[in-house]
Design brief:
- This protein has 328 residues and is of the alpha/beta class.
- The chain folds into two domains: 148 residues, Response regulator (Rossmann fold, 3-Layer(aba) Sandwich); 132 residues, Rossmann fold (3-Layer(aba) Sandwich), CATH 3.40.50.2300.
- 47% of the residues lie in helices and 17% in strands.
- It has eleven helices and twelve strands.
- The strands form two sheets. It has a six-stranded parallel sheet, with helices on both faces. It has a six-stranded mixed sheet with strand order 7-6-8-9-10-12, with helices on both faces.
- Helix 2 links the parallel strand 1 and strand 2.
- Helix 9 runs antiparallel to helix 11.
- The radius of gyration is 24 Å and the shape is elongated.
């Protein structure tokens, strides 16, 4: 009997040891989400997805970055994260020229980096998770042409030098290039300050005759509500306003009729999937982290994970409002 007890205890000990050894995750694993403009609702949604994945995996999530559009401050946060030797970093690139060297340094230091929302394709990042911004711009361009009746002047509000907004603008231009009677009157860099969009719209609504602005297109999240507010105040109901993303103010303006449509992205999904992807890399690291996997036909990683987009207008805005309310 004693021998059987000894055997039983030994087997139990092996089971406990085996189970402990198979425990995959730990709160000591720290994953970073880094961006700029963190005060935007868009990034609050992304942070929610990142934290949700961390809670599922029982790891530690840290969300860092400046509240405004400040690439240098974002670089400083990236460098602090790398110095902490985390399990992985998910980053949105506000300025490639500023952040690419920091991304490369992280990879060289052995820290896996995936980009989300805005890419640095020439960097050593492993891959990109986000929107196909070129196609999203084309989607918006088709709606713009339809609502402008194929003619008129349009103004774009953007963030100059940011890869995702540059691709969106190119997508619009691809469509407008087939419409010679639609003219781009101006492309305004708001530099992360939505008040620039508000003030510029006020000035441009005063233009008449051949210089009249018939449409305003916002290629980032904060400008749409500002443009819509000016259009509403001046009762310029004949102007077309297209926005980007689905914060509550933008959805309310669509429902109220001052914004024609917006392009919906999936920041929650980007960040949620991003942490899970980093976790997989941390637990099954490649033999060579700083390899260019985009040119490897046997790469374990994709080059780009498209999380999808959709166009939101009066026909489906209630679905998005309900989804936003449910997520809170």
């Amino acid at each position: 009997m004693k021998n059987l007890q000894r055997v039983g205890m030994a087997v139990l000990g092996l089971v406990v040891a085996f189970t402990a050894g198979c425990e995959r995750h730990s709160t000591k694993e720290v994953y970073y989400l880094i961006s700029a403009n963190m005060n935007l609702p868009y990034w609050q949604v992304a942070a929610s997805g990142f934290n949700h994945a961390a809670a599922q995996y029982k790891v530690t999530a840290r969300v860092e970055g400046p509240e405004n559009l400040d690439p240098q401050a974002e670089l400083a946060e990236l460098q602090k994260a790398v110095a902490a030797k985390p399990a992985g970093i998910l980053i949105s690139v506000s300025d490639v020229s500023v952040l690419q060297p920091g991304i490369n340094a992280a990879i060289e230091a052995g820290v896996p980096v995936i980009t989300m929302d805005s890419d640095a394709a020439g960097s050593k990042r492993l891959y990109f998770i986000g929107t196909n911004n070129l196609e999203a711009g084309r989607l918006g361009g088709k709606r713009l042409v339809e609502k402008m009746g194929g003619k008129g002047n349009v103004v774009f509000f953007t963030l100059a030098g940011q890869p995702n907004t540059e691709e969106r603008l190119k997508g619009f231009k691809d469509v407008l290039g087939t419409r010679p009677d639609i003219h781009i009157a101006d492309v305004v860099d708001i530099k992360g300050d939505a008040r620039v969009a508000f003030d510029t719209t006020q000035q441009m609504l005063a233009l008449t005759g051949a210089k009249k602005i018939d449409a305003f297109v916002c290629l980032e999240a904060s400008a749409g509500k500002q443009v819509a507010e000016v259009v509403k105040r001046q009762n310029a109901t004949d102007r077309v306003v297209l926005a980007w993303d689905t914060d509550q103010g933008t959805l309310d303006a669509i429902k109220g009729g001052t914004i024609e449509a917006t392009i919906a992205q999936k920041p929650w999904t980007m960040a949620y999937y991003g942490l899970k992807a980093l976790d997989e890399i941390f637990h099954a690291p490649p033999a060579q982290l700083n390899k260019d996997y985009s040119e490897d036909p046997f790469s374990p990683y994709p080059t780009f994970v498209d999380t999808g987009t959709s166009l939101v207008d009066k026909n489906n805005v209630d679905n998005f409002i309900a989804a936003e309310a449910q997520a809170k």
